[in-house]
Amino acid sequence: MAAIAIPVRSQGRFGVSLPLLLGLLVYGQILNYPAEVLGDADTYWHIATGRWILAHRAVPHHDVFSFSMPGAPWTSPEWLAEIVIAWLYDHFGWTALVVVAALCEASALALLLRVLLRFLAPIHALIATVLAWALSMTHVLARPHIFTLPILVLWVAALVIARSRERAPSPWLALLITLWANLHSSYMLGLVLAGLLAGEAVLLAPDWGARLRAARGWAVFGALSLTAALITPFGIQGLVQPFELSQMSYSSGVLVEWMSPNFQRYQPLEVWLMVLLFGGLSLGWRLPPTRVLIVLLLLHTALRHGRHAEPLGFVAPLLLAPALGRQLAERLARRPVLLLDRGMAELAKPANVRGIAIAAAGLLALTATMVHGGVDRKNDKLTPTAALAALRSHQFTGPVFNDYGFGGYLIFAGIKPFIDGRYFYGDAFIQRYVEATAVFSNQLPVLLDEYGITWTLLHPKTPAVVLLDHLSGWRRLYADDIAVVHVREDQMGRNAQLGRDH
Question: Rounded to two decimals, what is the model's pTM?
Answer without folding.
Answer: 0.91
